[in-house]
Amino acid sequence: MVHAKKNIMVLLPQSEVNNRMLRGMSKFIETHCVPLSLYYNDRPGSKTLLQILELYPPSGVIGNLADPAIRNAVVDRGIPSVNISGLREEVVKQLPTVTMDNQEIGFMAANYLIDRGYDHLISLSIPTFFSAERERGFILRAHARGRQVSALTCESLAIRTQKIEDWRYTYFDEAKVRNYLGPLKGKSAIFCHDDLKAQHLGRVLEEMGYRIPYDFALLGCDNEERFCHLGTTPRSSVNVNSDLIGYEATALLWQILNGYDPGQSVRLIPPKGIVERASSDWVKIEDEAIRREVDYMHQNLHRKISVPQIAKAAGVSRRILEMRFKRDLEDSVGRKLNEFRMEKVSRLLRETKIPIGHISKLTGFSSSQRLATVFRKETGLTLSDYRKRYSRNRRAADPEFG
Q: Parallel, antiparallel, or unpaired: how do β-strands 216-221 and 236-239 relate?
């Protein structure tokens, strides 16, 4: 017997995170061969949407149902629905909910930054419901592990003094950034509750002469790659596991359509992990002289610098420099420089589509042939094989949803 497909309306604003939720929804339908057909509406306006619900009611709804007018219209018409907009009390009372565990996201962000050796944590919140939950988890976890937290808001750093109507369009004032963050320079990490704000703040910090991650590390949230790769330093970010949210929300709606009564059920989806990029790639070194020398090496990886040049920049003899590195880093200067180059090469191969010839110029190699020889000696792989293997592993991980 062939079942007629049921039309499911998906109500989500446009974003990379929500696109992944759509991918998770499609994955459930494809995996289980259920007769559901998704159609997308990014809510052009409550009035228009209410007319659609009145004239062409769908078989079910999945999406952001925080708007009371839309939510009540769905509930009043008895349309089976699953909310994914968060743990707002008024929504959870009316509809079953599958959503990200924002407090656990804050926990994970704090644990990651503390484990990386940062002594002071900074939380930069945005005026949204989910941001408040992320900050709560971040502060609770940091305090439990004995760390100080400075809690800032976008408004506290905003370039405009009047009321901000849309946090996405707030920009940061250099004087305010210097006033709030300047005293915390060094061994401090900033958790931005959104990748767009991490991109905005990172750009301002770099324009002001601060070095990321050495003066300030940056960790964003949602892993929106269009923002994470803007600027000179790619931003690390929390992967909130939105694929799995979409997958589980569709699974729950399918159960409801088949007679299951979920009541006031809530399922929280934990984050998938941290996607590490250069903005949090910090090595904890207590000796400030060694820190300056390592900083010099990182800042000049694109040049053909030598050990004598590093010693000259540090103002010490090569012998003294080598002794310091052996004592504090248990390695020679040359080996450490090569390690940093290989880390940058690997990151560029994994995270970008930059041609190999250009990567050799960005990492201080005389030619792409020389880079290929050194890389194969260090990793056992060719440059192209490394890039292919990473891409294949990444694609293979997508269907697992956590």
A: parallel
Q: Find the Cα–Cα–Cα–Cα dihedral 156, 160, 163, 167, rounded to 10°.
A: -70
Please give the structure tokens belonging to residue 268. 């929280």
Specify the 3-state DSSP secondary structure of 273: strand
For residue 41 the two structure tokens come to 């509406």
pLDDT tier, 163 (very low <50, low <70, confident <90, very high otherwise): low
Tokens 């900050």 belong to 135
* pLDDT tens per residue across span 391-402: 644 544 444 443
For the chain, domains (ranges, CATH) are 6-99+242-269 (3.40.50.2300), 102-241+275-280 (3.40.50.2300), 288-394 (1.10.10.60)
- Kindly write down the DSSP assignment for every residue of 316-381, as one continuous string: S-HHHHHHHHHHHHSS-HHHHHHHHHHHHHHHHHHH----HHHHHHHTT-S-HHHHHHHHHHHHSS
pTM of model > 0.90:
no
Tokens standing for residue 20: 């992944």
Query: What sign results for the dihedral spanned by CA atoms 27, 30, 33, 38?
Result: positive
